[in-house]
Design goal:
With about 425 residues, the protein is α+β, with helices and mostly antiparallel strands. Helix content is about 30%, strand content about 25%. Helix 8 packs across helix 10 and helix 9 packs across helix 11.
């Protein structure tokens, strides 16, 4: 790797990392820099996501090559989970979209990308910024004017090392647009409180709802409480009813009541019904929106329903069959039609002809232990929850149960055994 190698960081996001013999190590998720009051910011390492969604620190001293589409390392990777230090900044997470001032007096610009370059002494520095001028006012269509873009040397701007002032999140989200919700949740969790809220607020309602469901409870509460109240209610509507109810359980009663008032009546009613149950019962864990069909529905139509992209895999494994009405609480519950059985039958046949009428069911007050035993004993991914009149109230899926069985901090806990491996020697940073 020759001196003068330059890489723009936004293009580096997601790049595969390999060891010297070509075996994959992980993917680049961010770049760690020391932003100093004087001098160019120095790159100290990469944040690399390794299998198991663990983010680790890879020092630049162990990077032997950065080429198009790949990063090559010396093969030594410390598997201790990455923890950002006080003087460090994440390029994608914290520097993109930051407002800085041009030293020539021509105004303010926002940072859309940065380039890092290897110096003759082997150090990596931020040497250039790809920026966009901030244009005041709006166009005739009511949209904010987009200023001209330019590439400037890093020493051509001031305030890069100062605190964030109204930082946006467009460039960061563009770099992470292909991330799964769980992975983007990991990124948000690692950001500071202010930056986390800025990024969350820039997501659309559906994307933010998906990400919230993957965050620890403290982060969920912090983000929802930081949003404007009507926006928070819209996000709750976009969440699965059981996840929305779990989140409202963590809020002060007055705040939860206000948000329920602002939600659409039908969405709020589903959540209110779930809030009435204890959290560790079938009623408290269930979703009120499984796939529910009438017995006359064709198998072709049933398969189309479970192919929906927004449907969790556990709920796509089974169709719940009931008499009208088909919204919970339904008419009389008839049974379930399992996905594999549907695949074996003619598409024009009725779902009612292939239902399992002996399927195990739960009452709303069934404790967590009973739910777990039934799922395990019958190798099921979801179970119906019925009232005394055999009306379907909802369904409990295996992922709902796992959320209640795992410790509260499972999203943050380290993977056991990965913090002490032969090659995991500590490397000084900074």
């Amino acid at each position: 790797m020759s001196a003068g190698t330059r890489v723009f960081v936004a293009r580096l996001a997601g790049t595969a990392v390999f060891d010297p013999i070509g075996d994959p190590v992980g993917r680049v998720r961010d770049v760690v820099v020391l932003v100093r009051a004087k001098g160019a910011p120095r790159v100290v390492g990469l944040v690399v996501e390794v299998p198991g969604r663990r983010r680790v620190f890879l020092p630049m001293t162990r990077v032997t090559s950065i080429d198009a589409g790949q990063v090559i390392t010396t093969g030594l990777v410390n598997l201790r989970r990455f923890e950002q230090r006080a003087m460090e900044s994440l390029v994608l997470g914290e520097l993109l979209d930051r407002t800085v001032t041009l030293r020539d007096g021509s105004g303010e610009v926002s940072v859309e990308d940065v380039s890092i370059a290897r110096q003759r002494n082997g150090d990596w520095l931020i040497d250039q910024l790809f920026v966009r001028r901030r244009e005041p006012g709006r166009s005739t269509l009511g949209l904010r004017r987009r200023g001209a873009t330019l590439v400037v040397d890093v020493d051509a701007v001031s305030t890069l090392a100062q605190g964030v002032r109204g930082q946006g999140a467009a460039a960061l989200l563009e770099a992470y647009e292909d991330m799964r919700p769980a992975d983007l949740a990991d990124v948000l969790h690692e950001l500071g409180d202010t930056r986390r809220l800025e990024v969350a607020a820039a997501l659309d309602n559906d994307r933010l709802a998906d990400v919230l469901e993957e965050l620890p409870e403290d982060d969920q509460v912090s983000i929802l409480s930081g949003l404007e109240t009507t926006r928070a209610a819209d996000v709750l509507e976009a969440m699965e009813p059981d996840d929305a109810a779990d989140l409202l359980h963590e809020l002060p009663d007055a705040q939860a009541a206000r948000l329920l008032e602002l939600m659409e009546p039908e969405e709020a009613e589903d959540v209110r019904r779930l809030l009435a149950y204890d959290e560790d019962t079938a009623g408290g864990m269930m979703t009120t929106e499984p796939v529910i069909l009438g017995p006359e529905t064709t198998i072709a139509a049933a398969l189309a329903q479970i192919r929906r992209q927004d449907l969790p895999p556990a709920l796509a494994s089974v169709v719940f069959v009931a008499r009208p009405p088909l919204e919970t609480p339904t008419g009389r519950f008839l049974g379930v039609a399992h996905f594999q059985r549907l695949l074996r039958e003619p598409p024009h046949a009725a779902v009612g002809s292939v239902i399992d009428t002996d399927a195990e069911a739960l009452t709303a007050d069934a404790p967590l232990g009973r739910v777990t035993r039934l799922l395990a004993a019958y190798d099921l991914l979801a179970l119906p929850v019925l009232d005394d009149d055999r009306r379907l109230l909802g369904a409990v899926s295996v992922d709902d149960v796992l959320d209640h069985l795992l410790p509260d901090d499972w999203r943050e806990s380290h993977d056991e055994g990965l913090d002490s491996v032969p090659d995991a020697q500590e490397v000084p940073r900074g």
